[in-house]
Amino acid sequence: MDLEWSNPINEWKPDRLVEMPTGIHRHEIVFVACTEGIYAIKEMLPRLSRHEFEILRSMEGRTRHTVWLSDVLSRHGLTGVRNGPVP
Hints:
Number of helices: 1
Oligomer: single chain
Strand order of the largest sheet: 1-2-3
Radius of gyration: 13 Å
């Protein structure tokens, strides 16, 4: 994914960002439009992102409001938690 990974997500250029409804959250979140769909990207500590990924994974199929999980990324690449390919 060719995004501005070296910058904080709240500094990303808006050309591929889209507005989406969100609930209450403590971490920065942006939505990025790609040909495959819209990705929600949060900026948070790696251990918190792995924990959230596992919680969301456990909710899959139990509610229609759950996102489809892709990956947990770090500025240094994949952290090892995967659910599908990264385009």
